[in-house]
UniProtKB/TrEMBL annotation, chain A:
Annotated source species: Streptomyces hebeiensis
Protein known as: Ferredoxin
Residue ranges occupied by any 4Fe-4S ferredoxin-type domain in the UniProt entry: 1-29
Required cofactor(s): [3Fe-4S] cluster
Keyword Thylakoid applies: no
Pfam families linked to this entry: Fer4_13
Length: 65, 416
């Protein structure tokens, strides 16, 4: 599974970092989300799914491949 | 013709009858259930996800009652937050010539451009770094409280000072001015206030922030307002725009969290088994979970988030027409039984992270990491340090903020 982050859509709410700190971080200058792991291991996928669900800007997708 | 037929001719036509049944909004909470959304709002939720309500000006915007439609519409780029657009479902009359409140009343791309100027200090790591300072503020206030009169009003002695001190530090606003900004903020969030009076409060706060910006220009410090100075100098932001932004952050930074502290404490005192969980735990995960559940359960923003449809929007079998108002009361979305099992039960152990207490979409609260951290520190400290904390009056004597856009209590007499 691969994580896609649509950076221009990000509103820097920090929800993804809260849900999945291993996979997401925030840029120092404006808090916009940064992807740390594009293809996270299976043990991290629950956190990523939560991040997808709570991102207020629908900026995160989890796709096959 | 039968009597039934006669009866029909004597009533107005069916369309008028439908109109007459449209309920007034906002609706009143039940006196005996001060933590629950208004019963009438729950009735509307049962009827369907999209209803119509009547506002103070006679207009009949859409009421969005269920979680999934609330998220869909707040996340839809075809809705506007610009309160000055004709037909916008405002809470109360607006004085002509009034503007909104910085970027929360703007649409993208300008909203996003301005919001990103102030998001950095609210990033998770930056906020976490403030945790020890917030812990000290909380501990010091509790020390002072314990050394002072008993009983005491928890709002005045604790709930309001905690977030006010924190946001002052972060923005670079002198806490000594707290009486001034707290009283003017209160006017801004009270619903039944004369438009002139609200305008006056907004002007006083904007002038105050403008003056502070002047001081930051002369003597920049390490705070958020000083961080706006280069933006003013490059022309990215007008000085008035910066002042409005300051008003927004100052207001949102103290009123909301203060109400969560006081109302949350009251809710916990009324649910002693839940309070015991917090008092007896060392587990930061349980504390974090408790904060999410209290946010869901109390949802202190009330009166609904307001939007205007810019295009026709098809949703759940209805068509919201361009130009129609949309009201999203998140307090009822957070009690949607489709999403939260047994939604009216306060259960600190449940996974409530998907709540919409901070709203949803591009305008979702930017200060939420700070609010969460402050509440985690408060809820994990106050009841442990004062284990005998109790209400010093009857629940029926507590004055609730029924008349504001932020729900809570005006006073909370407590003893120990």
């Amino acid at each position: 599974m691969r994580v896609e982050l649509d950076e221009p859509k990000c509103v820097a709410s920090g929800q993804c970092v809260m849900a999945s700190p291993e996979v997401f971080d925030q840029r120092d200058e404006d808090g916009v989300a940064v992807l740390l792991e594009e293809t996270p291991g299976a043990e991290l996928l629950d956190g990523v799914r939560e991040a997808v669900a709570i991102c207020p800007a629908a900026a995160i997708r989890l796709v096959e491949g | 013709m039968t009597n039934r037929g006669t009866g029909m001719t004597s009533t107005a036509n069916p369309a008028d009858e439908r109109t007459a049944r449209i309920p007034e909004f906002p609706m009143a909470r039940a006196a005996k259930c001060p933590f629950d959304p208004p019963p009438a709002l729950r009735d509307e939720q049962r009827e369907g996800p999209l209803r119509k309500v009547r506002l103070w000006d006679g207009s009949t915007p859409w009421l969005v009652t269920r979680y999934s439609e609330q998220r869909a519409l707040l996340g839809d780029a075809r809705v506007s937050s610009e309160v000055t657009r004709p037909g916008f479902p405002n809470q109360a009359p607006v004085k002509s010539g009034s503007t909104g409140l910085s970027f929360i009343t703007m649409d993208d791309p300008e909203h996003s451009r301005q919001r990103r100027m102030v998001t950095a200090p609210f990033a998770i790591k930056r906020v976490d770094a403030l945790r020890p300072a917030v812990q000290k503020i909380v501990d010091d206030l509790i020390d002072t409280m314990l050394a002072g009169p008993n009983p005491v009003d928890l709002v005045e002695a604790f709930a309001l000072p905690v977030p006010s001190l924190v946001i002052c530090e972060l923005l670079g606003v002198p806490y000594a001015d707290h009486d001034f900004f707290q009283s003017n903020s209160r006017v801004l969030i009270t619903r039944d206030v004369d438009p002139e009076e609200r305008w006056g409060a907004m002007k006083r706060l904007t002038d105050y922030l403008d003056e502070l910006l002047g001081e930051k220009i002369a003597h920049p410090a390490d705070d958020l307002l000083s961080g706006l100075v280069p933006r003013i100098e490059t022309g990215e932001l007008t000085r008035n725009g910066a002042a409005q932004m300051g008003v927004l952050l100052l207001l949102a930074g103290h009123e909301t969290t203060a109400n969560m502290i006081a109302l949350g404490t009251l809710a916990l005192l009324e649910h002693p088994d839940q309070l015991a969980l917090l008092r007896e735990t060392d587990d930061p995960k349980l504390v974090a979970s408790a904060v999410e559940e209290l946010l869901r359960y109390l949802n202190i923003t009330h009166g609904g988030r307001r939007r205007l449809a810019l295009e026709d929007i098809e949703i759940s079998g209805e068509t919201i027409r361009a130009g129609e108002g949309i009201i999203v009361p998140n307090e009822i979305g957070n009690r949607d039984p489709e999403v939260f099992a047994d939604p009216d039960r306060l259960d600190l152990r449940r996974d409530a992270r998907r709540h919409v207490a901070f709203g949803f979409g591009v305008h979702q609260c930017l200060g939420q990491p700070l609010a969460r951290m402050e509440l985690q520190v408060v809820y994990s400290t106050l009841y442990r340090r004062i284990p005998t904390l109790r209400l010093a009056t009857g629940l029926e004597k507590i004055p609730f903020k029924h008349d504001g856009s932020v729900y809570g209590v005006y006073e909370l007499p407590v003893a120990w």
